[in-house]
Amino acid sequence: MSTVRAAGERAAGEAARRRTFAVISHPDAGKSTLTEALALHARAIGEAGAVHGKAGRRGVTSDWMEMERTRGISVTSAVLQFAHRDHVLNLLDTPGHADFSEDTYRVLAAVDCAVMLIDAAKGLEEQTRKLFDVCRHRGIPVITFVNKWDRPGREALELLDEIEREFRLKPTPVTWPVGIAGHLRGLVDVRDDAHMLRYVKAPGGAREAKEELVPADRAAAEEGGDFAQAAEEIELLAADGAVFDRESFLAGKSTPVFFGAALGNVGVRLLLDAVVDMAPAPPARELTGGGVRPVGAAFSGLVFKVQANMDRSHRDRIAFVRVCSGIFERGMTVTHAASGRPFATKYAHSVFGQDRSSVDVAYPGDVVGLVNAAALRVGDTLYDGPKAEFPPMPTFAPEHFAVARPVDIGRSKQFRRGITQLGEEGVVQVLVSDRRGEQAPVLAAVGPMQFDVVTHRMAHEFSAPVTLEPLPYHLARATDAAGAEALNRSRLVRGEALTRLRDGALLALFPDRWQANSFRREFPEGRLDHLIAAH
Ligand code: G4P
């Protein structure tokens, strides 16, 4: 067999046993806790203790990390790799809290599946909705985990209704709780309703609950009403057609639902099994201009995040690359599709929490960090062998806007260069209007953290300190020339229209949804379309 064919088969085989996913949730729903619980069940590959929980955020030295430490937020997107049942799972972190930014959305360009984590008491929350929107747009299938069932919360059926009503996504429970939220007795795996999985608090205050498989007749006798109610509800759901169906799950029309408590490790193993059994393996990826790159083809990878200046003494730049096809081997020279230039991968790292260790080989679905990647931008493709170029990364609906101005007008050249570069890198979106001119561009961001990064890098990297003046807008819609013109002359509605530099698209900015709606009523002739993840 030729070595190329053998490598292709190896890549395809490794791809088949990989699952690359992210957890989408609102802050405090329990993402860190779930991540730790997943890693506990699985065998973490790499350094233990670097699970990106809150405890892992210490002892860092560079200026980035200083910012991270003082603000208590995570700037670095981490990847956790672990093994489960002969499979390799890559869990990509989606930064939340105050560091919610375009990077959070971009992570979803690098995963094949998402676990939507819902707090049993709160149901669907704002950041979950936004992230779900992106999943839907990108066709990423979603597995749902209802967390904190050990605490008082809402009714299970009510939570399912909310998912169906708000997301037009059919919930198909795979596990069902015995006992209402706050009175968790166990779970029934609806595929095996002859048993109940009972969870018993471990003695001595250990966090992990003990799992016991109890036959249904014994469960009925011992759990009484709770088990009978669960059995009745499971029957009702089945009669209603709420049964897991892989095809509609992969098509983004239904979501398998799991219940549990990440803190007590309840239901986590079943979720982990679901990721292996239900989530898709890395697929062939669509190329710009049609066609796909099969996973067994030569190496190709997508840059989904670029982190600059993490270390002041090195001023390095790390590009996070998701391997899409073939085998990545450290040291190989690949081609940067955007420039056609060769790119040496001498400094490849696995990006595990904040620790970096060299990675020698990676397969489709894995993530590698390339250091000294000054030439790489978010959305870029790297490849070996036949040319591959993946479609550009979409830009996401910004919600924060600020006018940037140089502190020292004598440095306007450096100012323009810096702003242009940060825009190209995707650190922020850069908008201009005829009225404000190029010396006062409007920076647009998904999260305010992105502005801090701009201020920091403009001062330290481009020697052009800036002032940012916040604008009172929080909503952007795509518009056209008619809409822009109407908005700029309208006095009844507050807002303005600006051009997005990178793609030339026109954006209409409003303080809120009500202003946008009244503008639409006033000037129905202008286009006013939703952007991804705008509400
Ligand atoms: P996040 O990463 O999504 O922001 O959430 P995180 O895991 O930090 O969890 C938020 C809070 O919810 C934590 O409590 C955590 O212990 C708790 N939690 C997570 N999962 C469960 C669960 O299944 N059951 C219960 N009862 N609580 C859960 P905290 O008091 O804010 O922090 P900590 O001091 O306990 O760490």
UniProtKB/TrEMBL annotation:
Cell location: Cytoplasm
NCBIfam families, per the entry: prfC, PRK00741.1, small_GTP
Pfam families on file: EF-G_D2, GTP_EFTU, RF3_C
Organism the protein comes from: Streptomyces synnematoformans
Entry superkingdom: Bacteria
HAMAP family on file: Rel_fac_3
UniProt KW keywords: Cytoplasm, GTP-binding, Nucleotide-binding, Protein biosynthesis
Organism lineage: Bacteria, Bacillati, Actinomycetota, Actinomycetes, Kitasatosporales
Domain Tr-type G: 16-283
Stated name of the protein: Peptide chain release factor 3
Job description of the protein: Increases the formation of ribosomal termination complexes and stimulates activities of RF-1 and RF-2. It binds guanine nucleotides and has strong preference for UGA stop codons. It may interact directly with the ribosome. The stimulation of RF-1 and RF-2 is significantly reduced by GTP and GDP, but not by GMP.
Protein family according to the UniProt entry: Belongs to the TRAFAC class translation factor GTPase superfamily. Classic translation factor GTPase family. PrfC subfamily.
GTP-binding in keyword set: yes
